[in-house]
Amino acid sequence: MLVHEAQFTLDLGESGYLIGFTEHDDYPDDMPYGWRCGPAGATSAIVLPTTEDGPLHLTLQIHDSQPVPEPDAAWETAEELSLLDTGTPLHLATLDPGDVTDAWPEDLPAPRLPASHDGWTRMRLYCHADHPDPGVGDHTERHLIQLWRAPATDPVHPALTADDRQARADYRAARTGPVQQYTLDFPL
Questions:
Q1: Reduced to 3 states, what is the DSSP secondary structure of residue 164?
Q2: Neighbours of 187 (CB within 10 A)
Q3: CA 20 to 30 Å from 151, out of 20, 21, 92, 120?
């Protein structure tokens, strides 16, 4: 049964958003290229939307048990993963170029999930964009995130392609490589 629901518009950064039970001050070590969401650690997930920079309508639902799946016609195939709840309110942040910015609306209290004996929460993500090609601007994109208490289980994602694996490897290499210098000295 639905316990809590929040709906709002999120202004996205170029790299999606993070949602979970801890604050973030840095980009995750891995990006879930080929999926819509993936772990950004045990306590949070990163979500990669179609809209690279612009508005996204987000509906967040907290349930007291596993919700019935939404009709397929309204959404892309759902993805799921388990998150470790630290007992803190839910945290939301956008990933802007070179920055991680808090994104939870100031006028809405961040929800907490009901207490659990093992601390695990299941997250299901549904996505829809009227314009499915990635890009800047309003794609009339909306996401539905459903959270409920459940033991940790394997994630549910589509199969990865070779291109997805290469994009992940390239990102990982860029994260662990030396920082490039982007300043130039000009003689006066």
A1: helix
A2: 3
A3: 92
Pairing type for strands 55-63 and 141-149 reads parallel
Cβ atoms of 72 and 126 within 8 Å: the answer is no
In sequence order, which residues have a C-beta less than 8 Å from that of residue 181 and are 6 or more positions away?
A: none
Burial of residue 45 (CB within 10 Å: 0-12, 13-18, 19+) is buried
**Reduced to 3 states, what is the DSSP secondary structure of residue 170?**
helix
**What digits encode the pLDDT tens for the residues 71-106?**
878 899 999 999 999 888 899 999 887 778 888 888
Q: If you ran DSSP here, which 8-state letter would residue 176 be given?
A: H
Query: What are the helix and strand counts (H, E) for the chain?
Result: 1, 12
For 177, the 3-state DSSP assignment is: coil
Q: Strand 135-136 and strand 51-53: pairing?
A: parallel
Reported as a single tens digit per residue, the pLDDT across 7-43 is 999 888 778 999 999 887 788 889 999 999 999 999 9
Distance CA 184, CA 141 (A): 39
Predicted local distance difference test score (pLDDT) of residue 131: 77
